[in-house]
């Protein structure tokens, strides 16, 4: 298949077999102001009708079923009424995603659904640093236990609670690194929680692709304490760097644990607490695994995903 980035000009002037959409709600109704949403919604509706007129199939990969942060509930309802009747196929990344889709949008049961997992990130980012080099770059002792949260920091990701629980856990010779960009109010809250504790280090800025290795290679454990989640690219990114993860037992993370195995994915139920963190640290220190072992991610290989995607489009 020939793949090209979308543009309105291409849709109007050229002939395409498939229009494949990602994150449509975030791009259309995820804007702050209604005045920005309404024209986008009109343009999106027109784009769908042009694609239908030109007999271009419309596919949607359902990364999320609903936006994490609902800004315009009424306009979101309008969006779904405009969007779903025009969709020819939906790609869900797990059986959990498919069930959530049917729960939120029962009308999609009449649309062909294809289950295709989220691919891994091996080879997508520079990965040349050793653990010692990464820790030196971050000013961390080589023999400390290092837990890391990496990714864009938003309220639903539970970072403030993670910091509180980590401090309360009082783990000897342990550090928590939080790295990623954050909105001003979120950054203010987590800075206030952590400012009196030297075992918590904050890097509240966008992490460029060259620095991802620095945080993940320094980590003994990656903790992603989402309060709500369906799919997590951050979890797969950590596993792509062969770092074990601590994540809630929700969304596709349960299925990810089944794919990769209990030596790499530790699930917890309910809210994160200090006991869960202490137990996870003990798990990392005692798990039976060889040095330099690789997380088994063959099920998330991109060649396999490509074949499944082509089959769905066909």
Walkthrough of the structure:
By secondary structure, the protein is an alpha/beta fold. It has two domains: 8-115, no CATH class; 131-297, Rossmann fold, CATH 3.40.50. Helices cover 41% and strands 14% of the residues. It is built from 13 helices and ten strands. A six-stranded parallel β-sheet has the order 7-6-5-8-9-10, with helices on both faces. Strands 1-2-3-4 form a four-stranded parallel β-sheet. Helix 5 links the parallel strand 3 and strand 4 (113-115). Helix 3 packs parallel to helix 4 (73-83). It is globular. The termini are close together.
Globally, the shape reads globular
Structural class: alpha/beta
Main β-sheet, spatial strand arrangement:
7-6-5-8-9-10
Number of helices: 13
Any idea of the CATH class of the largest domain?
Alpha Beta
Low-pLDDT segments = none
- Give the tally of structural domains: 2
| Secondary structure: number of strands | 10
Name of the CATH homologous superfamily of the largest domain: Glycogen Phosphorylase B
Order of helices and strands: HEHHEHEHEHEHEHEHEHEHEHH
CATH topology of the largest domain: Rossmann fold
The profile of the biggest β sheet is:
6 strands, parallel
Alpha-carbon distance between the two ends: 11 Å
Radius of gyration: 21 Å
Q: Helix proportion of residues, in percent?
A: 40-55%
Mean pLDDT: 94
């Amino acid at each position: 298949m020939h793949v090209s980035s979308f543009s309105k000009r291409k849709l109007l002037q050229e002939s395409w077999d498939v229009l494949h959409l990602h994150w449509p709600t975030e791009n259309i109704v995820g804007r702050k102001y209604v005045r920005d949403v309404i024209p986008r919604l009109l343009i999106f509706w027109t784009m769908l009708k042009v694609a239908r007129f030109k007999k271009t199939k419309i596919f949607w990969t359902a990364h999320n079923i609903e936006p994490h942060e609902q800004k315009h509930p009424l306009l979101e309802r309008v969006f779904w009424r405009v969007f779903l009747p025009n969709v020819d196929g939906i790609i869900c990344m797990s059986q959990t995603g498919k069930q959530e889709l049917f729960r939120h949008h029962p009308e999609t049961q009449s649309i062909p659904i294809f289950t295709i997992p989220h691919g891994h990130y091996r080879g997508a980012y520079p990965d040349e640093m050793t653990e010692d080099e990464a820790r030196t770059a971050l000013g961390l002792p080589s023999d400390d236990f290092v837990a890391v949260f990496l990714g864009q920091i938003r309220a639903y990701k539970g970072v403030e609670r993670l910091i509180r629980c980590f401090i309360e856990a009082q783990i000897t010779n342990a550090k928590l690194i939080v790295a990623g960009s954050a909105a001003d109010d979120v950054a203010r809250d987590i800075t206030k929680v952590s400012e009196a504790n030297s075992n918590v280090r904050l890097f509240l800025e966008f992490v460029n692709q060259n620095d991802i290795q620095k945080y993940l290679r320094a980590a003994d454990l990656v903790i992603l304490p989402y309060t709500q989640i369906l799919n997590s690219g951050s979890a797969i990114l950590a596993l792509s760097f062969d770092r074990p993860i601590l994540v809630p037992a929700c969304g596709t993370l349960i299925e990810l644990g089944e794919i990769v195995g209990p030596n790499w994915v530790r699930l917890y139920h309910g809210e994160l607490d200090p006991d869960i963190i202490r137990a996870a640290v003990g798990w990392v220190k005692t798990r039976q695994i060889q040095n330099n072992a690789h997380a088994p991610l063959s099920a998330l290989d991109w060649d396999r995903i490509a074949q499944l995607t082509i089959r769905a489009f066909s």
